[in-house]
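> forwarded from #structure-qc
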């Protein structure tokens, strides 16, 4: 009877244990994501300016944002930025991971060197690239002038400004996703490559026929995380270009910030946030659908 009682207690503990393990993450999710989202939804139905009572105005904020040309331009710029940056981040991080997963001399050192930029704050990265590419105070323009070459107006031209923002993003995030790809590459069984070598497969054939298909779950994870990270970009751009020139690098989050904390239209900014979150959720679900949730094809 005692044995049966101990068995029952152990069974109950095993059922409770998973919930105990996820409780901290669930608590963080509720406090920092779920609850603020609910408050944001409530504020989006008001004309609250940050002080005073909440005046319910229904869906007036949503009706306004659908005709807000500046918001949709910032959303277009956000899409452009994400579409350019995402493939570059994935390709460069996968290339680095493929090179550094091999047994080469100094592998640990090079991994640390490429991972280090991902530990730097976006704001610091923005200031660093402003120091390098600044139109009047940048190192590159100084070197060009000393060689008698014309200076480049990096941040006063919309194309070059976006290019520098993309470059800074790729530089600062590649190392993080490189580590993720290294983990995925190390999980691939060596027997696949041994069998391919017996059949006389070239390195390129092994990469496209073995590595890429078996790396699909990792690639899907990197794509989702990177896309979300890019879509809510703010710190890097605000310190580097402040959305310029002429709004060419002003993304959705910066526009929402300006509406909330410069114009003190927190109700309207909350509506913008809700729509942005909805767009991001739809695009993420679409990626899940198109990629079959990252599952490996049979």
């Amino acid at each position: 009877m005692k044995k049966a009682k101990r068995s029952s207690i152990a069974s109950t503990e095993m059922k409770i244990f998973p919930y105990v393990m996820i409780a901290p993450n669930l608590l963080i999710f509720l406090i920092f994501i779920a609850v603020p989202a609910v408050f944001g939804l409530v504020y989006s139905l008001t004309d609250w300016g940050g002080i005073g009572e909440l005046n319910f105005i229904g869906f007036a904020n949503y009706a306004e944002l659908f005709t807000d040309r500046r918001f949709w331009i910032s959303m277009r710029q956000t899409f452009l930025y994400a579409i350019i940056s995402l493939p570059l981040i994935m390709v460069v991080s996968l290339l680095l991971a493929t090179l550094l997963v091999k047994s080469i001399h100094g592998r640990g050192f090079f991994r640390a060197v490429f991972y280090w930029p991902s530990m730097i704050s976006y704001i610091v990265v923005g200031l660093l690239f402003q120091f390098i590419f600044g139109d009047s105070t940048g190192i590159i323009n100084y070197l060009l002038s000393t060689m008698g070459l014309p200076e480049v107006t990096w941040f006063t031209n919309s194309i070059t400004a976006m290019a520098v923002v993309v470059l800074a993003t790729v530089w600062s995030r590649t190392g993080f996703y490189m580590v993720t790809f290294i983990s995925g590459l190390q999980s691939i069984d060596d027997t696949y490559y041994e069998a391919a070598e017996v059949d006389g497969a070239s390195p390129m054939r092994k990469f496209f026929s073995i590595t890429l298909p078996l790396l699909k779950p990792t690639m899907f994870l990197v794509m989702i995380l990177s896309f979300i990270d890019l879509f809510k970009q703010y710190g890097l751009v605000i310190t580097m270009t402040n959305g310029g020139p002429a709004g060419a690098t002003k993304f959705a989050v910066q526009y929402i910030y300006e509406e909330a904390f410069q114009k003190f239209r927190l109700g309207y900014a909350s509506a913008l946030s809700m729509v942005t979150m909805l767009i991001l959720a739809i695009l993420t679900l679409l990626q899940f659908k198109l990629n079959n949730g990252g599952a490996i094809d049979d």
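QC bot note: The chain is about 70% helix and 0% strand. The longest helix spans residues 2-43.
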